[in-house]
Specification:
Strand content: 15-25%
CATH superfamily of the largest domain: Isopropylmalate Dehydrogenase
Number of domains: 2
Structural class: alpha/beta
CATH class of the largest domain: Alpha Beta
CATH architecture of the largest domain: 3-Layer(aba) Sandwich
Shape: globular
Helix content: 40-55%
Oligomer: single chain
Radius of gyration: 19 Å
Number of helices: 11
Low-confidence stretches: none
Length: 329
């Protein structure tokens, strides 16, 4: 039995979490769910967006499922706090085409590996006389371990190329360190093709020739931006999952936010949450269950009969989840 921390969050986070729990309860596996709170609704009740109890539940779980949270200006980010507290240094964001989904490209399958703990998201900011400054923190330790994670991931999943994305021509010290460390690590993986791109060029190539990428490894902000661009190539954020992985813990979440404009309507696309759970099952090495759920989702997408409005249908979140679950029985 696996101990799974469940943090629905706010808005559609609750809706997509209910959907994936329904699907998971269909498969022949036992989970002990530990519910926890985070986000803006949590702040209204407790005065904090992420209680210490929630952090402890996530630390002690075999894995964490995270929905989505609303973060109001001035509040502490619950998800960034969890990433830091659990040292979830690697953010995996697949960019994969699925049949039955209207996309720019219908046969993409690459992965962005984003350093998850530093860069501009280190949160080192201060006000100045003229405005404000933010410190971009890049360390050799973090650059080395995220590069090694990317190469190990490529090797484990049978991928043949890793591309570092940076801006070392301008950010000579910080991104220079990141690039040089990447190439140092690459010497231990001579069987994997290695190259690098400036982030602006990489952004263009994602649109003009995304097939040149297999695994991209990059810094925190660049990874955040490029992965959303990648999502746009394969149908949008509603189909894009992610994993946050550290040495001892892992958290899985859809890339989309809490979508307050549609929250409560029951029409949010559960695919990204379901695919995040597929990534969780792969992390737990329950590959058979992972493939079964992904295949069931693919079948529902192909049929394009019981799908949410963003996918061209008129079904609710739970109707789509139940259709996926039915394929698993």
């Amino acid at each position: 039995m696996y101990e799974i921390a469940v943090i629905p969050g706010d808005g559609v986070g609750n809706e997509v979490m209910n959907a994936i729990l329904y699907v998971l309860n269909t498969i022949d596996m036992e989970f002990n769910y530990k519910n926890a709170i985070a986000g803006n609704e949590c702040f209204k009740k407790t005065g904090t967006t992420i209680p210490e109890e929630t952090v402890e539940i996530a630390k002690n779980a075999d894995a964490t499922l995270f929905g989505a949270v609303t973060t109001v200006h001035g509040q502490k980010s619950a998800i960034i706090t969890l990433r830091k507290e659990l040292d979830l240094y690697a953010n995996l964001r697949p960019v994969k085409s699925y049949p039955g989904v209207k996309t720019i490209f219908n046969d993409l399958n690459f992965v962005i590996v984003r350093e998850n703990t530093e860069g501009l998201y280190a949160g080192v900011e201060k006000e100045t006389e003229d405005g404000a400054t933010a410190l971009r923190v890049i360390t050799k330790k973090a650059s080395e371990r995220i590069s090694r994670f990317a190469f190990d991931y490529a090797k484990k999943t049978g991928r043949s190329k890793v591309t570092a994305v940076h801006k070392a021509n301008v950010l000579k010290k910080t991104d220079g360190l990141f690039r040089d460390t990447f190439y140092e690590v690459s010497k231990d993986y001579s069987d994997i093709e290695t190259d690098d791109r400036y982030v602006d060029a990489a952004a263009m190539f994602l649109i003009t020739n995304p097939y040149m990428f297999d695994v991209i490894v990059t810094t925190n902000l660049f990874g955040d931006i490029l992965s959303d661009e990648g999502a746009g190539l394969v149908g949008g954020l509603g189909l894009t999952p992610s994993a946050n992985i550290g040495k001892n813990n892992a958290l899985f979440e859809p890339v989309h936010g809490s979508a307050p404009d549609i929250a409560g309507k029951g029409i949010s696309n559960p695919s990204a949450m379901i695919l995040s759970a597929v990534m969780m099952l792969d992390y737990l090495e329950e590959h058979k269950a992972a493939r079964a759920i992904e295949d069931a989702l693919i079948e529902v997408l192909k049929e394009n009969r019981v799908v949410t409005p963003d996918l061209g249908g008129n079904s609710s979140t739970m109707q789509m989840a139940k259709e996926i679950a039915q394929k698993l029985i």
